[in-house]
Design goal:
alpha+beta
Amino acid sequence: MASNLQQLLGHKPSSTTLSEHISTLAAKTSKLDVATPEVKSYSDAVYFNYYPLGLSILFKPVNGYKPKTGLKRSDLQDENLVVDGIDIYNVPAPKAGATASRATKSPYTTYPISPIVLNLVPLPQDKEGKTRAETINITPETTGKEFVLSMGEPDRKGGGAGPSSGSIGIWCEWSKDGVMVEFGGEESRGPQAWERGKDAVWKVISIFPPKQD
């Protein structure tokens, strides 16, 4: 079963489409109460964190709504919140020799549906006359090289060598598609991260409304 997350953007917390998506994810796990999120509310954002489902949803307040900090799910004004961002997580098994702290750092488990299908905006042919794919199918094993082959060079990128001894993973953003990918594993960190990053698998995919030029 494939998962199309982009269709969830703009929906309210209580929308049928969103509820059905969460129920489908929950059915893929054997854990109880996974469909109930941890809620974090702020004046400019509300997060629903589904740790056992590898999913975090960002809601943007609209119509002048300013939620208080620390609200419960039942206290939120659903009619004044819309999905403005989605993060999905991938927690691959650590490779031999990986440090335990890095391997167990994320509270999220791997998003349970594969492949994840993302729609890509049409772009002019490249210098070699190749036409961009209409979609990309993402599995837990998809690497940086495979993202670039399907999506082309990113509009923005960063990470790799950083202020904390190279502990910041590399990331790439395709702004027109509304997709940012952060990569994990040892290949995504350190001075040679961009040379080795082609072999790094994704750690977090963030989906947001596409940005226009």
